[in-house]
Design brief:
alpha+beta, Alpha-Beta Plaits, two-stranded antiparallel ribbon, 5 helices, globular
Length: 164
Amino acid sequence: MSYQYTVSFIQDNCIQCHGCEVACKTWRSVELGVAWRHVRHIWTGSSSHLKNTSASVACMHCLEPACVESCPAGALMKRPETGVVDIDRDKCIGCRTCYEECPVKAPQFGADGKMQKCNLCSDRIDMTSDKPPCVNTCPTEALLFVRVNDQEKKSIEEYMLKII
């Protein structure tokens, strides 16, 4: 059985503070207009019975990432040891196919036109003992950094796609 790392989101715990967004953007020095993680506001109901919930959304590092399969330049790869979907920006041609194929529209494009996105901070933390800043910053533990098996990963993906 294989295992991989992911950020799990618990919608009922989210207080829409946007701390995860700020932590990511600040720690990674993400340029203006680009968000590797963002809080989506989800409105349901009708005029007098409106309800607002949210979802903290970033690359899900899918079990079977459509972005990797669809990239014509071969710039994306899934790291088997961690499950992280990573990009070789030198290979990226900026075609945005990855964005079109992504179920959560996680790929972002900055001033240089090349794709960028969350990599679970795998290049900056020890994934076996540390947590990404977005998770560390969350005051209500709406974000959890977990190591999961394939079945658990699939359930997390299905949950996220259901709520957003």
